[in-house]
């Protein structure tokens, strides 16, 4: 899906000059694009101010294969007992950072991906409305790879040049008591560094 006319006028002329041409489409040139059908329009006038970090691996703890891509594109094989209960889910994230640091984009950043669920940040609910979701391939057991942090840092910088991102939060923080990701193996020092760079 490509972006539509709703996005015109979002950037001021001064800012637009500093942006990569590819940025204005909402698809980052640094990412491999795989379109997910699981998105819709953001509410009008909702500034995209939050970056939400997740982890995912399918099956849990398995880092090879394409199950996450199939989940986000509604192509999971429901004959696989470990994954069958996920096959009916309609979910997505804007970005997926694989173990080797490669970056996939599923949803245009100007559109609303379906990653946060019931959530709130600083008193504001429905974080999908105003956030960009980043899934980092991993789990609660294994350290994340250095290349994943490097990609996340570059992605954060790219997004900050395109969108009025103010905060970076974990899924655990916006869905407290319901979600734990990106979990204890995620390096909070790196997250804090990203936060400071944005403030
Ligand atoms: Zn999550």
Structural descriptors:
six-stranded mixed β-sheet; binds zinc ion; 5 helices; 199 residues; alpha/beta; Lysozyme-like; two-stranded antiparallel sheet; disordered N terminus; 22% helix
Total strands:
10
SSE string = HEEEHEEEEEEHEHH
Distance between the termini: 32 Å
- pLDDT averaged over residues: 87
Q: Quaternary arrangement of the chains shown?
A: single chain
| Helical coverage, percent range | 10-25%
- Spatial strand order of the main sheet: 1-5-4-9-3-10
Report the β-strand fraction as a percent range.
15-25%
How would you name the CATH homologous superfamily?
Answer: Peptidoglycan recognition protein-like
Uncertain regions spanning at least 5 consecutive residues: 1-23
Bound molecules: zinc ion
- Provide the CATH top-level class: Alpha Beta
What form results from the Cα inertia axes? globular
Q: What's the number of domains?
A: 1
CATH architecture annotation: 3-Layer(aba) Sandwich
So how many helices? Answer: 5
Specify the structural class: alpha/beta
Q: Return the CATH topology.
A: Lysozyme-like
The largest pleated sheet is described as: 6 strands, mixed
- State Rg: 16 Å
